[in-house]
Design brief:
12 helices; 380 residues; alpha+beta; 5-stranded mixed sheet
């Protein structure tokens, strides 16, 4: 079974507008000398890591923030550093809040109780509301993990897992719609909206009424305004709209403009060397290119690779056989200027652009890309 990981698009709830202080006090069980706690967060594609020494089972983080944000709290009980643990780490997701709050446990931080934080209390309520989805996914992963090689090669077995997977996704969507309807003033209604936007390919017909049902205060919050701007960006990128022009350097640091390819069908393809689903989709893009490149079709590939990772970008181009495409990137990860202009919230993402520079299709995958190009190019 092909398994994809749907990352929750958690937006930061806006509880405070001015810069305010927070204090997070932590308590865990027995630790070795050199033990540390770490706070890991990502802002505009960059990762920030703070650390605190654990003394007598206690640690503390202090700082300021304009609004709460999601972090991963990790505890290195043995003092060996994060690299020494691999995937076997004691960690949990939580929100930093403009408050004095505690995260306390007699053992692992993953089992800790959070007190004094309204945001995390609401976070727990939201997670409980959609917990049926998590339970369903846990069952699917357990069954797949315990399956034999023969079972994993059995179409009937993988098909029933896929059926359960899609049913779980549908259930999560239904629960999120219900949460938004019943909680128009909850910051996690914005969280649910952003997740639905990712899963439903930013379907404005569905999202706009739900957004409009929120309270005025929530819509005016930073999180609400951020989501509103994403909808406005999507409107500007609708089918039939002109594709925004841009200039970005290619692999040889030469500037390339989208408008340079006016007169051709262009697949504007957003991807990255670190993106597993992108790499899995690349053979389909290559096949489409080989079939239609002599019929006025080309691929303009925009990489969201990270700063200092040009070698990884070039290596993926070579390994996946993408050398005939035109490749550009500013190596700024999620802060890639073209990706931001096109409102890219996940990869792979693509836009099919007509010879006169208008968007004619979005997010074509596998056979969809071949069928669309056949309709447009072979039977115009």
């Amino acid at each position: 079974m092909k398994r994809g990981i749907l990352l929750a698009a958690l937006v930061l709830p806006a509880m405070a507008f001015a810069q305010q202080a927070y204090t997070l006090k932590g308590k865990v069980g027995q630790t070795a000398p050199g033990a540390k706690a770490y706070l890991d967060r990502r802002v505009n594609g960059e990762t920030f890591l703070d650390s605190a020494v654990i003394k007598d089972g206690s640690f503390e983080f202090k700082g300021t923030l304009k609004s709460p944000y999601l972090v991963m709290l990790t505890v290195d009980h043995n003092g060996t550093g994060l690299a020494g643990h691999g995937m076997d780490m004691d960690r949990r997701l939580l929100y930093l809040d403009n408050a004095k709050f505690t995260v306390a446990s007699n053992g692992n931080i993953s089992d800790a109780v959070i007190t004094g934080s309204p945001v995390n209390k609401e976070f727990d309520r939201y997670k409980l509301f959609i917990s049926a989805y998590d339970s369903a996914m846990a069952g699917i992963n357990k069954d797949y993990g315990s399956a034999t090689d023969a079972q994993r090669s059995d179409t009937a077995f993988t098909n029933q897992l896929n059926t359960r997977f899609h049913a779980a996704i549908d259930e999560k969507k239904a629960l999120q719609r219900r949460f938004i309807s019943e909680n128009p003033n909850s910051f996690f209604s914005i969280v649910a909206l952003k997740e639905l936007a990712v899963m439903n390919n930013m379907n404005l017909k569905e999202l706009t009424p739900m957004y409009n049902s929120l309270t005025a205060a929530l819509k005016k919050s930073p999180a609400g305004q951020e989501f509103y701007q994403s909808m406005e960006t999507e409107k500007a990128l609708g089918i039939g709209a002109p594709a925004p022009d841009f200039t970005q350097n290619d692999i040889n640091d030469k500037p390339v403009k989208l408008s340079d390819f006016r007169g051709k069908y262009v697949l504007l393809d957003f991807w990255a060397s670190w993106c597993g689903p992108c790499r899995a989709e690349n053979p389909n893009v290559v096949a489409a290119y080989r079939k239609f490149h002599d019929k006025n079709f080309m691929v303009l590939s925009v990489s969201l690779d990270q700063p200092g990772k040009k070698a990884a970008w070039l290596g993926a181009i070579e390994k996946d056989g993408l050398q005939d495409f035109v490749h550009v990137s500013d190596l700024k990860y999620w802060d890639n200027a073209v990706a931001r202009r096109y409102g890219v919230r996940g990869v792979p993402t693509n836009y099919l652009i007509s010879p006169d520079g208008k968007i004619i299709a979005k997010n074509l995958r596998g056979e969809q890309l071949d069928k669309q190009l056949t309709t447009l190019i072979t039977n115009p």
